[in-house]
Amino acid sequence: MACCHGDKSVLLIEPFYGGSHQQLIDLLHEDIPACKIFMLPAKKWHWRARTAALHFSQAIPHSEVYRLLFCSSVLNLAELVALRPDLGRLRKIVYFHENQLIYPVRKSQERDFQYGYNQVLTWYVPLFHT
Q: What is the pTM of this model?
């Protein structure tokens, strides 16, 4: 789902487009005229975190124009770059809204560390994959 047209050099990718995530993307969209937004509705964040990379790997068209990729930590950026090596060459900015390693668990249950681990991998991508 893209909402900008023409030659756009900044990719704004948001797997959970709602609430504060939506507010940030909308603000960036207003201030960055050269952006192209790809988003998914704010539903079932657990599934967005697990599957968004595969969705966006297919939804984002290949282009030599892209220069910068901005996403929230809901996206597993390591998976996206593995699925789409052409996006690996872009400069990357990741917005970490919530730390899943220490985020409070609502019910008395064992924590699923996969989300935190995905965030650690996502953190590494901009540091070592440009």
A: 0.78
